[in-house]
Amino acid sequence: MSDQNAPNDQTSQGGPSGTGTGPAFVSAPVLHGTYEISADPARIDAARVHQWISTDAYWAPGRSRQTQDRAIAGSLNFGAYDIGSGEMAAYARVVTDYTTFAWLCDVYVDRAARGTGLGTALVTAVRDHLEPYGLSRILLATADAHGVYEKVGFAPLSNPGKWMALGRQ
Q1: What's the average model confidence in pLDDT over 9-32?
Q2: What is the distance between the alpha carbons of residues 111 and 119, in angstroms, rounded to a whole number?
């Protein structure tokens, strides 16, 4: 990616405060029904994210709060928030160099918000947020949500079957 393709309003996301370490193109929040999707690191409810990931996500049962906080601090984070209450309803995390590669992980939608299209809207917002960086590839792994990611443009890698990519393979 050439520098001319990089977002113009990059800022530091900080470090140990739990807000990430790379450049941050802070896009405007995206609305989906009664939810607002935002990449604003100050809005992330780290305790809620930890509860979801450590107790209800098949990929990280028992993940410690310290580990989750470190993961949040070193990542680009997205949250979906109920417009009325401000309560966090979904989360996604991206590990990226902001130049060639990103890994989408820890995508979680609260059980009460499932079936509303919020997961697809969240992943679409992540994809669109990363688009200005001109990344060659965005990868993820899923055991059960292939359909959600396919709606946004992800496709299976040739091997192994549970990995998916957006872009060049």
Answers
A1: 52
A2: 11
